[in-house]
Design brief:
GO terms for molecular function: DNA binding. The chain is mostly helical. The chain has helices at residues 13-26, 30-50. It is globular and about 35 Å long.
Length: 51
């Protein structure tokens, strides 16, 4: 089982609204949208480092 620790995240209102809209559009949770965004960023950075 994964060991997941809660993390409080403070976002500007426009970011919070965007995440909420994305979650509704994709039928997912806001938490999932934050994870998706961070993973996308991680992959881009790793891809840049590999080239």
């Amino acid at each position: 089982m994964l060991d997941r620790k809660p993390m409080q995240l403070r976002l500007p209102p426009e970011m919070k609204a965007w995440i909420k809209a994305q979650s509704q559009k994709n039928g997912s949770s806001q938490n999932s949208e934050v994870i998706r965004a961070v993973r996308d960023r991680m992959e881009r950075i790793e891809d840049q480092a590999a080239t």
